[in-house]
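Archive entry: two folds, one per protein. Generate the first.
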Amino acid sequence: MFADTDAGSIIVAAQSGAQWGYHLLLLQFILMPILFIAQELAVRLGVVTGKGHGELIKKMFGKKWAWLSVSTLIVSCIGAMFSEFSGLAGVGNLFGVPTYAVMILVVVFLSTVALTGSYRSVERIALLFGLFEMVFFIVAWMAHPSLQDMLQGILHTPLTNPNFLFLAAANIGAVIMPWMIFYQQSAVVDKKIKIGHLKAARLDTAIGAVITQLIMAAVLVSTAATIGKKNPGASLDTVHQISQALIPFLGETTGKILFAIGMTGAALIAAIVVSLTAAWALGEVTGYKRSLENHPREAPWFYATYIVILIIGAIVVASGINLVNLSVGVNVMNALLLPIVLGFLYLLARKTLPDVYRLRGCYGWFVGVVLAVTALFGLYAGLVGI
């Protein structure tokens, strides 16, 4: 659930509040049901067919289309790794730890997690850390945001401003993430979730979608009511600046520590998920063994892909690039990829499932319209913003 609110999502929401106040707040709530629709389809496909996303595309549309889909995914995964490592590097910088040192520690740690089979234990710890993202609810409340300002921001949306559209696209890409669609489907297959548990999986997905977007909204309100109010239109350049939204209410030391723990938890969960997703997807297309249940000697390509994605992310982030701009840009890229990702998701839900689970009727058409509008608006906003 907290993997949905990754480091990139927090950075994008914070930048949105700092630069545009409450203008992008309504979008967070509009995206809530759309996130559920997309993830529920992925869960349904995985539970009912027992196959991963890339594997289903290969079966239904052929190997070339499967490679197109997986290539899109790999681009998204590498970009997402930049975002997660940007968040972790930013946390290290808060305490004076150089970026290169943080990257070395993270790559070694996450590689060890996979190779020793301790993923589940680390996932639980990271989820616990991720709970500290909830601190933004407290900050959003303590900041006493003006209801009049919020209403004015929601009602007056500058849809003709390219800079606004760029961040709108980033918000869409930060919520409807291509790699998350692949991961959701592959994860339910790897965990061997049965059809009898589909309702419970749907409920978990719904709760996750609500919490994800409430956290995004809370981050946006926190920075809009503090940084955005003090210096309207200012662009954030560092992760440290995001933590400044907490300091007036929690104190410098407490605010910094709580922010660091929450960001670390969110980034660690997502970094593991992103690397696993890339390794799973390539395995689905090429046919190599691809499960955490396999020992590294049994599935060398699976673990090699996982580690290579980590190394690529670490090298780019350690190069000294602007971490906030990198995260925002990555999520805009996610929005640009949505026509391909959501298109395949919709077609699979219409064609591969048994009648009782197939996406059809009025709801099927409704879902098609919602996904099409989301993908096309994300594409339009991203291209105009660029």
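Generate the second and append.
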Amino acid sequence: MKKFEEMSKEELKELRSSLAAKYDEYKAMGLTLDMTRGKPAPEQLDLTNGIYESLSTTGYKTASGVDTRNYSAPAGIEEMRKTFGDILGTDKDNIFLGNSSSLNMMFDCLMRAMVFGEIESDCPWYEKKGRKWICPAPGYDRHFRVTETLGFELITVPMTDEGPDVDAIEELVKDPDVLGMWCVPVYSNPDGIVCSEETCRRLANMKTAAPDFRIYWDNAYVVHHLYRDSIGKIPDMLALCAEAGNPNRVYEFASTSKITFAGAGISCIACNKDNMDKLKKICGVQTICSNKVNQLAHANLLPDMEAVDKQMRRQAELIRPKFDAALSVLDEDLAESGIAHWTNPLGGYFISLFVMPGTAAATVKLCKDCGVALTNAGATYPYGKDPEDSNIRLAPTFPSAEDIGKATRILAICAKITAIDKLLEE
């Protein structure tokens, strides 16, 4: 098959007619397929159904005798802090546990900076009227909405094969109004990129004009490997920042949302002692403790990395066929056309598709009209505006592999139709 750009207008029109007929066939089926968000499927959640059974045998008490039903342990129980420390490669004393949402912890962390400033700040961040935040893109739309909601100017930097473009970041942080950045270092959302060690070290070592600059290191997919023979790994960012003489620079976040129950898991923030002392002081006013009963249930299920690894292998067995189904269709239906390229992630929850520039929004709309719901075009960029109108995030975990294949087939048809329309306009 010729690449679309090599076809004559007559050939393009003939192909479009054929594609439109296929599209109408699918539309007549009245399908309802949802690939909008990275949600675990019911069978993934079922893996954890027995998690609370252990509580009756332990009398709700930890090994050290803490009664998890009562007030105590504001930073969380030691057992679950150790599990998160093992997951993140840091000491349990660097871990502060929350309830189910790591996004909630990120928002609260930023709110503390807004109201009280950071350790090095000369004023609360809300007083910094020109405050800016670095947003690697394609990236996570909810990250962007947090900093936009809190009044930051969002600055886009591109992603590379080794993580965010550090050359661009090193230039941007020369501005004292740039106070921080987002980063998903392992299997980034949506590209599935793993930060290289060099990228991590440069981010830890770079000179910033703002003394209170912070990196929000959202390690959401740190153990979410699809293929055991190729596992994404990064160094401990807390240790790198300490070695670089910037010990307060990073806040690291994680949760069990895609390990156990998405809406009833445990989240955590990891940071150095000075940041931790400040966090504990403020949180001690805000709350007495988080849900330790749930922490104990999780610690019983996931007491060590062997148990975590076992759980994640079972998760991968369920979702890998869905990724394979989507990638197989993309390869079969789009590879020869020359109108698109996409990532082949080794872990995480997403596939990042890049269609012909100027056609992503039209492609998503065409899919919607055919019963396939996708993340809004532009959502992976700050302010919801993809400058190329090219990126579409695919979330293949929730539907069945069969439905994923069908939805991706429809997506490929829509991408071809919009690409042809674009070419015929030129």
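Annotation attached to the second fold: The mean pLDDT is 98. The longest helix spans residues 305-334.
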